[in-house]
Each structure stands twice: as structure tokens, then as C-alpha cells.
Amino acid sequence: MTASPYRFEKAVEQVLKHEGGFVQHPRDPGGATKFGITRETLSRAKKRPASVNDVRRLSRREAISIYRQLYWDAVRAEELPPGLDLAVFDLAVNSGPARAVKMLQTALGVEADGIIGPVTLRAAREADMPDVIRRLTKARLGFLGRLATWPVFGGLAQACPRHRAGGSPARIPSILIFKECLICSRPRPFSPAAPYGPT
Q: Cα torsion at 34, 35, 37, 39 (round to 10°)?
């Protein structure tokens, strides 16, 4: 899979469309969050305990850097086919890289060992991309529906996180991402400047 310096930038812009500013919802186990980055994630990035004020002061640029290091690179998204890269990256952001990789491997029909290696990458390249993206999204929603927080942050609200009432965090995955993933997976002439979504 040919690497493109634009792939991450375009993917993270899609993710950030569905993430909010600073929130600290009392029912969210992630606690203080900004741009989808939780206090725990920021602590890992800084390699020290992060305070609520650290989260509040988090810049968009720093958040993007964290997304690259702890999520995009962790799932080797650059080596996945277009569309699937965004689907797995967004899943990693919301449910963790390890779970994202295992769910991808299950959707591909390979051993779910949580490690993206040659077998997983080959299966991804040879797969029917729209079908894999649909299966991955279905598995993702099934997992989320079993969470205790789903009645608060799930349902119809997840389809438009920026408009949820009560200041709830915008870290619930958007079904809109699913549409973007399918659009990206369609074969088309390569254009490094081409954005995710319709052209």
C-alpha cells in the first residue's frame, strides 16, 4: 500500500468533525475530554499525570499529534486500504487500538491476535472493502450497544454528536463516518489532494 502524506490529515479531519471541545460529563467514565482526548490519554501522551486544566488547555495541534502517535500509527492505518484506514482509525479512537485491531481481524476472518502484521494486511488488501467496512461497523455498534453508557450516549444521539443535548462528550462514533469510509473505498484515480468524502 503506497503511503500518502495526506491520508492521515484527511482522516483526522473526519474524526475531528465528530469530536467536541472541552466537556466533563458526569456520566462519562472518560472524565474530562477535549477534541476526543481524555485525561487518561493525555497522561499517556505526556508521560505524566494530566490534570483537568491540562485537558482544558489542549490545543488542536497537540490533539492531532496524539491521534497520529497513539491511534493512527498504532493500528498501522497508513498500510490499510482507503476507507478501511478511516474505519479502523475512528474505531481505535473510540474503543482503543487493541480492540479496533481485533475487531478488524474478526471482520477479515483472520486470527484475532490484536497485532496487525503481514497476514492481516494481506487479508485487508484482498478483501471486498465495502463488505468489510459494513461488517466492522455492525460489530462496532453491537459492542457499543452492550455498554452501560449506551442509553446515555448512544442511540440517535451518536449520529450527530455535536448536537447532543446536555453537553455530553462527542466521542461516540458517528454513523456519518461509515458513509465516508464507503465513499473512500470506491476505486478512483489517485489524487493526493483528494479529500475524504464526495468529490
A: -10
The model's pTM is 0.75
If you ran DSSP here, which 8-state letter would residue 60 be given? H
C-alpha grid cell for residue 108?
477479515
Q: Which domains does the chain have, with CATH numbers?
A: 5-185 (1.20.141.10)
DSSP 81-134: PTTHHHHHHHHHHHH-HHHHHHHHHHHHTS---S---HHHHHHHHHS-HHHHHH
- Summarised one tens digit per residue, pLDDT across range 73-107 is 999 999 999 999 999 999 999 889 999 999 999 99
CA distance 176 to 89: 14
Count Cβ neighbours within 10 Å for each residue of 55-67 and write b for 16 or more, e otherwise.
beebeeebbbebb
Angle at 73 between CA 67 and CA 77, to 5 degrees: 100
CA pair distance 69, 123, nearest whole angstrom: 24
- The answer to whether residues 28 and 55 touch, using CB atoms and an 8 Å cutoff, is no
Cell numbers given for 89: 482509525
The CA-atom distances, in angstroms, between 23 and each of 58, 74, 158, 191 are 12, 26, 16, 37
Tens digits of per-residue pLDDT, 12-33? Answer: 998 888 777 887 765 666 678 8
